[in-house]
Amino acid sequence: MSRKKTGRVLSTLFPKVKLHNHNTIDALNQREINGSISTKYFPDVWGIFICFTLSKREDRQTRLGDYKLIKMDRQKFIRPDRQMVRISREKLIIPEREAATQRMLAGLQRETKTADIAKTEKTANENIAEAVNAANKNIENAVNTAATEHLQTKQPEIAEAANKPENSIVLACEIDEVINYALVHNGASVVRDICIKNTSETERNALLLKIASDGELMEDFVCGIEALQTGEELHFRNLDLTFHVGYLASITEKFSGQLTVMVLDGETVLASEKINITVMAFDEFPGFQYTPELLTSFAMPNHPAVVSLIQLASKYLEKWTGDPSLDGYQSGDQERVKNMAAAAYAAIQQKNITYASTASFEACGQRVRLAAAVLEQHFGNCMDLTLLYTACLEAMDLNPFMVVVEGHIFAGVWLVDGAFADILVDDPSQLEKRMAKGIQELTVVECTAMCSGQNVSFDEAAAMAKRRVSNYGKFYFAIDVKRARSRGIRPLPIRVQTANGFEVLHEDRKEKEVTGGSDSKIEIFDFSDCTEKAQVTKLTQWERKLLDLSLRNMLINMRVTKSVVPVLSADIGSLEDALFDGEAFQVMPRPADVGVNPAAESQIELLNKLGELSEFISFESKHKRLHSIYSEKDLSTSLTKMYRSAKASLEENGASTLYLALGMLRWFEQKKNAQARYAPIVLVPIDIMRKSAGRGYAMQMRDEDSQINITLLEFLKQNYEITIPGMNPPPQDEHGMDMPKIFAMIRKAVMSMEMWDVLEVAVIGNFSFSQFVMWNDIHNNRDFLEGNKIVHSLIEGAVDWDCTIPEEVDQEEAYLPVTADASQLHAINMAAAGVSFVLHGPPGTGKSQTITALIANALTKGKTVLFVAEKRAALEVVQKRLAALGIDDFCLKLHSNKATKKAVLNQLRRGLEIDMEGTKTDYEQRIADIHAMRTELDAYAKALHKKRNFGKSLRQLIDLYESIPETREQVQFPVSDIKNITEGDLSSQKNHLERLISAGRSIGHPYQHPLAAVKRAQYSQHLKTELEPAMQNYLSVLDNIQAQMADFAASAGIKNPVTKAEWNQVSELIRCMESTEKMPAFLRTTDSVEREFSVPEEYLEKQEKFEQKKAEMLSKWNENFLSQDMSSYHAKYEEANKKVFFLKGKAQAALVAEMQLFAAFPVEVEQIPLYLTEITAYQQEEQKMEAAEAELSYDWKQILKEHLTNEELQSYKVQIQNQRKNMVRFAGVLQEIEARGILSTLVRKGKALFSIWNSMDAAERKVAELLELKFCDEKADWIENRKALCGCILENAAALKDWIVYQQNVDLCRKNGLAPICDAYEKGLPHEVVLNVYLRSIYRAIILGVIESEPVLNGFTGTGFQVQIGQFKKLDQECMQLTKEEMFYRLSSQLPSVGDSVEVSRELNYLRRAISSNGRGISIRLLFEQIPHILQRLCPCMLMSPISAAQYLKAENDLFDIVVFDEASQLPTCKAVGTLARGKNAVIVGDPNQMPPTSFFAGNSVDEDNLDIEDLDSILDDCLALGMPSAHLHWHYRSRHESLIAFCNREFYENSMLTFPSVNDRQRRVSMVKVEGFFDRGKSRVNEGEAQAIVAEIKKRYADPEQKKQTIGVVTFNVNQQTLIEDLLQEEYQKDLNFDKWANMGEEPLFVKNLENVQGDERDVILFSVAFGPDAEGKLSMNFGPLNRDGGWKRLNVAVSRARCEMVVFSVMTADQINLRRTKAKGVESLKYFMEFAQNGKLRGDYRQNEAVKNQGIKAKICRALANAGYEYQLNVGHSKFKVDIAVINPDHPEEYLLGIMTDGDSYCQSANTKDREVAQFEVLKGLGWKLYRIWTMDWWDDPQKEITKLLGVLERTGCEADCECPLYMRKKEEQ
């Protein structure tokens, strides 16, 4: 019956169930009834049925149902359950947990999978296909048959039900057809499902469901049904029936019975069904087709018979080990557990049981001899003995299991306290791995080996069982007893036989016939030292990133071809040990008598199963002979090829790839994948030596360490999350690697992986991959890497060398054959100075130009350079530029590892042919000339823009001066104050002045202020209370003294004084009167004061001398003693001298004693005469002084009493002389006064007047102290003035505080050098102009001072300076050409010659021979190693990729002076370090804001939504993180319109790039085209609308003659869109060959690229396809692929910075559709802002300034002049920091500028390079279409109006020229 017909049949029975094509069943959603899920089903009376597993879905959608096929084939074991087997068109898939129970159903699938180990993938696929077809056919036949049979059976019921709708009840039952005691004992449910359906149109109520059996099998089951709705069906599942267990236990033979199921309405039977069942005997196993785990019930560990065996086993255990304890796992000793298992084996063996199969005449099931029966009958088969042995093991508290293979069963036991994850295990590798050496967690035992007639030891029985396990094709499953017990499967209870049965005479074996315990020792490896993870170093990380983890790599997926040689080895560990010890093995073909098919597809597996060959192979190995599986011819061919390949690798790459792989990991890509793959585990480096043509090849270990296959370890870690610790370094023994332990560690790690295992085999092969040479650089040359300072720092994570940039780095002259701006020149000089640094090169900043100049300069200075770029295009760009300089013959390009020897030799040959003499140039003189001219030009810029003491440059100060409003008033500041004025001084002065003006406003104005005399600068609160009393007192005293003076004047007869001078004269008169009255008359009347004073002067002089003498004498003698007569003492002395000796001494001593009483010093006898003489002289002088004093007159004696010293007398003399002079002045007045006799009266009045005067002075001082008054009344009536001042102060006391504050500010201003402006202010300068007058005056003074001090400024004229610029430009062009000649001369001069040295001569001869022989027999690497000295002289510059550097250059530090990396942001560090280590210093060129290294978009199959793929670390990022010095390229040259780079500059570079404004800056060159269409997100991931629009745009530009001249590039967001556009273009190419030629044949062909590979490319026009947008339903996802990732904005930066002239964005969405609230990705945010920019042309934060801005100085005045002349202008044109200062708008074409006006302001000064400032920038601007005019500051300072007039004249002429060029003007002229 066809599928279609079967479907109709099933649809008739169950209209809601559909049978779809390909044998898949789709059930509709079910409705829930009474809390249970109603299931559609199809009963099968023949034992074939289909069960549906359905799930309720809220969305009411259907799904494929799982179903299971049950076949009533009694020879195969299949059990029914509700675990489903899904059968699809492709393959048969068994559910994971219960797969073993379907062994025979899925037998073909199992055989297919296991056959994979022995057969090729092709055969396996064929078997799978055959199995699937057979399974599909069987299923189809079964379903068709079941449907037909059921239809025939049910048709009467359906017809009857149709006739009686009121009684129509349909009953269907699913009941197990087999039952026995074991099933009931373990709680199995016999009734699976009973379905009752009401097919009538009436509801049925109060129904009964009844189940009854015939005989005594069970009690009747009755269940009530309250109601059954129309069309409703009810299910009763897993009903708990009550069976008579005693009856089941008594059954000894199988019989058939029936269960009757009825639906009753009262007594009426509405529906019934009889089910035939088979009731089995107590000791009968139902078979594996039902419940294979039920077999564990028949293992009865508690049976008395088993207990007796355990007791016997204990005795054996004691005999063997001395300890009868059954301590099992508690001992922690696997050896102990194994001995216990062996003891149980021996106990059963002793019973001498005979093997006998069970008699069974049934179609299903098998009788089992229980433990008692086996021991009583002494018969048993494999199952009986396995169950008995299992029961013994379980009784010993061990964990046994049973292994079922085809036609056989045996037992096993866990040697550790473990169990399998499931009851049933169908993966034989799970057993094999756990039995492997070094692990041995379990063992298996062949139980039939215990039978009589065999003398098989326990170890032999275990070996027999292991062999059965290793036969995967016949392995079914293992049953874990412990796991079964944990799931509730219990042993059968003990059944007691009450009647006597047959008795057979039987004898146990004799003790000597029983085998002993296990002799083999369990070896368990200690993995404790492997748990800790080895420290992962930077080197390790770099190695891993270079590993190839694809299936192409032989280290992951080794394919057995003729390129590998499998060898036979019985012991891999011994082979490795022998190789490690230096043994050499002869590799031989397979033995002649061995029938191994080398073409067999199971070669690897066969290597592991030597069988009978094992002993022979071991013998050969001991004699150092290894046999392969190849014939002699095939072996020779393979080894020869391998030998040559290894030799070529050694020569080309510097490393051999020949290894002996020991051990293979068998692995599978997926659990359901049938193809086994193999990966080497240990790689032993070997060399193959050809002994002779007859003796073949020998194999010996190279002088390198064996290594673990780290590629495999990383592959397992990344793909399967399997980490194997302890492999770095791998376990070692005394002979190299510990192979058994390594294999055990890997087995342990893959224990849970189905069918994975380690095959202990050996294979010779070349194991390599694409990046092997770079990996080898790191792996085998660690010392070389760490020998480089940069690489060592990268490893350590910190800079460990002095990276300070020398201060003189920019002072040395560079050889520049090309133009270089200041930032480029700085980088060039840094490289030449030996600085390692990172060079930041944003888009279009001339990285290639800089690299070219850098290389040229370094080569000319005698350095060697290695230029490295991963992209060939980058190398070619630099190579072409170097060729343009004429030095390409000195530069060797080797990009890939496929470089030809011919090209290399040709390059070296050209180097040898270069003329070594060259031509000497006058370069040095020209350099000196241009240096002098540069210095002269720089002097102006430096002087103008040098920051000076006053904090600004002269240019800035002039701008400030010009921005201040002009004033008529000016003040002059002293030159001394201006000369050293600082920025702080100016700021301080301005602040003080502003505060002064504020204080001046508060007092009105300081000019003629009433409080001007008050100079107090500090206000005090006491002033309020003290001021008025002090002033009043002062006024009172002034009134009093004025009155007293009037009285005195009247009395004296003199004029009343008015001025202060007159008052002083009266004061002198009074003093003269006083002196006249006091002076002695003789002195007043004498005619000679000198004569009168001569006598007293002489007396005082003598008196002073005598007083000195007196003081001296008194210091020695008592004063009374000095007044005595010394003659008595003279007499005593003379008398003493006259006495005799004895008496003389006594007398002298008495005299000394007497005199000592008056002396202050020790008196000596000998000195007594001198003492007496001195005292006598003193007494005489004293008498003379007394006589002189007596001679003085009385007047002098009185005078001298007051003037004791000569000094005082002289002072008195001077006083007398002065008084006598005053007396002369006032002689007339005095004479009159004396004549009148009123002198004394006037003297008294004068004294009174002086007293009042003193009071006035005190009052005045107090007032002056309070207010610090300054009196200016010397010539006026000073008393009246002071009285008036006091009154004024009292009247204005309220304003006193404000005045004092003003005075305070005045003082501060004067102290800070503002006296001139303070004076002007106090003289009436208005408040409003004070500050401007100050600023203009001070600035002008400073400016004039600076100009006067700088000759270059003082003598500057713009016209002369322009002439100098022209001369410099011409000289620079000549110098660049001369530099090229000088470079060639220097490079050719260093070429090697034969006469240089013996070594050079030898290398030259070697090279010439290689050239003449075309390099026959020599590799490039070997050639380079043979000519190391001349190579760098012939080719001091090499251009390579990282892989070619690793391949062709030896691993040696300092091979090159400089290593230059281009596009370093895209170069992973792991690829760069090897090349980096070959240089002394490095220049890392790249842009951290552009693309990082990534594997994203590697192919069309990549899913851009998968954001788990991370970008790799680049050498640029790592060096920046390290803190290496950095240099930056600033000037952007690529974009011909500034808007093309403005967005990137502002968004990604913080506006740090200096870009050139466009002459048509008011136009847009970034535009957006809104396209109709959608993004197909789910399927093709393309946007057809955009693709078609872009192709149409390209066609349109091709058709336009002007646009056709521009080159075009297309950038897309993803690979799929790129492919679509390429496909569409290809169709257009085929239609139009000229279009194809135009697009693809030019110097810059049209390209279509995606974000990931467009970096480095540029075109005139870029068409950008966004692709992403709303889908067909209008939904817009915020997932924009790579833009959503961290750093995704870098990709956008690359994409939108490729255009030179124009960029057009094509998109189906607009910027406003991007909702930033739905994503935080910076890349998406930047995309939104870029689309806004493309739509409206405005940047975020961008602004335009159309009016003159305050403080713009010169520019502001120019703008005002332009406005007055009627011109519109744009100020500061440009998006970056470089601006065109003023752009005059063309009146006739407002979208363009008529003229650009450049000053020598900010844009001028930011260029440190002379050429940039004076030539290059102007040339670039002119190239962009600008017409420029310069206004020089010094010219402006000299005469601003003159400059304005010249500018307006230029504008007028330029406007006329523009009109002449206008097409309309030309047309009118032609018409005239």
Topology of helices and strands:
Layout: H1 3-13, E1 17-19, E2 25-27, E3 32-33, E4 36-37, E5 63-65, E6 86-87, E7 92-93, H2 107-118, H3 121-163, E8 169-175, E9 178-179, H4 181-185, E10 191-198, E11 204-213, E12 221-228, E13 233-239, H5 245-250, E14 255-265, E15 268-279, E16 284-285, H6 304-321, H7 334-350, E17 354-355, E18 366-367, H8 371-377, E19 379-380, H9 382-395, E20 400-405, E21 408-414, E22 424-425, H10 428-435, E23 442-445, H11 458-470, E24 475-480, H12 481-486, H13 538-546, E25 564-568, H14 572-580, E26 584-588, H15 603-607, H16 613-622, E27 625-628, H17 632-653, E28 658-667, E29 677-692, E30 696-701, E31 707-708, H18 710-720, E32 732-733, E33 736-737, H19 739-749, E34 757-766, H20 772-779, H21 782-786, H22 789-796, H23 822-832, E35 837-840, H24 847-860, E36 865-868, H25 872-884, E37 891-894, H26 901-913, H27 923-945, H28 954-963, H29 975-979, H30 983-1002, H31 1022-1052, H32 1060-1078, H33 1081-1085, H34 1089-1114, H35 1119-1123, H36 1127-1138, H37 1141-1156, H38 1168-1191, H39 1194-1202, H40 1206-1225, H41 1227-1236, H42 1239-1267, H43 1278-1291, ...
Parallel strand pairs: 9-15, 17-19, 26-27, 35-40, 35-41, 36-38, 36-39, 37-38, 39-40, 42-46, 43-44, 43-45, 45-46, 49-50
Antiparallel strand pairs: 1-2, 2-5, 3-4, 6-7, 8-10, 10-13, 11-12, 11-14, 14-15, 16-18, 20-21, 20-24, 21-23, 22-24, 25-27, 25-34, 26-30, 28-29, 28-34, 29-30, 29-31, 32-33, 47-48, 48-49
Helix pairs in contact: 1-3, 2-3, 6-7, 6-9, 7-9, 13-20, 20-53, 23-24, 24-25, 24-48, 26-49, 27-48, 28-46, 28-61, 30-44, 30-46, 31-42, 31-43, 32-40, 32-42, 34-38, 34-40, 36-37, 52-53, 56-57, 57-58, 59-60
